[in-house]
Amino acid sequence: MQLCVDAAKCPKDVDIKVDVSVIIPVHNGAAWLGVCLASVEQQQLQHNGAMLMVEVSLFLDSCTDASESIVQQWIPALQRKRCCVTLTTEHNSSPKGVGYAKNRAVEQSRGEFLCFLDADDIMMPTRIQKQYELACKASNAIVGCRFVRDPPESTVRFTRWANTLTPEQLQLQVFMSHGPTVIMPTWFCHRTVFDRVGGFSEEGAGTPEDLIFFFHHLRLGGKVLRHDEELLVYRYHPQATTFSIDEQTIWDLRIKELEARVLCCWEAFTIWNAGKQGRKFYRSLNRETQRKVVAFCDVDAKKVNSFYTYEESPERPKPKVPIVHFTEARPPLVICMKLELTGGKFEENLASLRLEEGKDYHLFN
Question: Which of 115, 282, 286, 335 could pair with 272 as two cysteines, CB 3.0-4.6 Å apart?
Fold first, then answer.
């Protein structure tokens, strides 16, 4: 069922410009949807003395809870705010996934710009207004924003990382395990960004559709920006889609992207970390890339001046990679160390080498 309602007289057959479509995919979001839609209704939409024309595009994917009823209850309030509401409810034997729901919500929408919002998150009152202003100046960018985590003590390291990246790091630290350098629920972009990528993967549950889209966007020359105000409350709870994605799936995707965009251009490189994560990284590389690894580097005296032998390799003789002290490492490097876990010692060691991120090294873990 599709419903298009609007007190501002803007059905699809009327030629009217919609500035921003708020894209909300929903699967059993009743526990959070009311507060989410309230945050849309409370948006401040003044821009250069005029009101932004906003559409709320919801796609309900096989909901078995009260999600549709909650949306229907909020339609009058959104209409009074002069928001178009486009609602599609699709009932299947099982949900088709977040990527599918996002694509359908975008396809049925009309906005020049797209503002993505998860049903369990909350927008600050100026989110649309401020990201719209920034996106208008960068039509080839995904524009994110800083966020507040709820509850605040959850994912502290991740939140600090995402909120403190420099403009340069937004483009450079894209291979790290944290995922996109601007989180998906904060994305705001011109419709052409979505069209150029071709939408989200629809492979279903367990697919990191946001990371796949993000990497494709970067490969096409797309940019990443972040508004430096906290414009979203990002909820953390056990039902979040993030928990349905296997870490190995994300690892493999990151490896493939790093090989395709960086390692293919390097003649040789060093892996920083001769321990478990560094060795797993080495074993995950294709054979051609493995042959480019000239050394591991580490600070552990028990490892330095020895070799790592890749016992599982089908090659004969089996590859043996020397392990050197980090001060003897020859750049470029792939760093397989997690940040903020050594009391600042790793960060101090890295800074002592005076290397340039993106040229001399890339962070992976």
Answer: 335
Give the distance from CA 191 to its chain's centroid.
17
Q: In a 3-state reduction of DSSP, which class is residue 359? A: coil
Predicted confidence (pLDDT) per residue in 117-168, tens digit? 999 999 999 999 999 999 999 999 999 999 999 999 999 999 999 999 999 9
- With CA atoms as reference, report the closest residue to 335 among 176, 174, 179: 176
pTM of the full structure? 0.94
Q: Which residue has the tokens 């889609």?
A: 241
Point out which residues pair with 146 in neighbouring strands: 230
Q: What angle do CA 146, 151, 156 make, to 5 degrees?
A: 60
Q: pLDDT category, 206, cuts 50, 70, 90?
A: confident
Mean pLDDT of 282-303: 96
- Peptide bond before residue 238 is cis, with ω within 30 degrees of 0: no
Give the Cα separation of 6 and 57 in Å (integer). Answer: 12
Whether omega for the bond prior to residue 317 falls within 30 degrees of 0, making it cis, is: yes
Residue pair 26/61 in contact (Cβ under 8 Å)? The answer is yes
Per DSSP, the residues of 280-297 read: HHHHHS-HHHHTTEEEEE
Measuring CA to CA, which residue among 9, 3, 124 is closest to residue 59?
3
- Give the model confidence (pLDDT) of 328-354 as tens digits: 999 999 999 999 999 999 999 999 999
Give the residues across from 142 on adjacent strands: 224
pLDDT digits (tens, 9 = 90+) for 129-139: 999 999 999 99
Concatenated DSSP letters for 95-155? ---HHHHHHHHHHT---SEEEE--TT-EE-TTHHHHHHHHHTT-TTEEEEEEEEEESTTTT
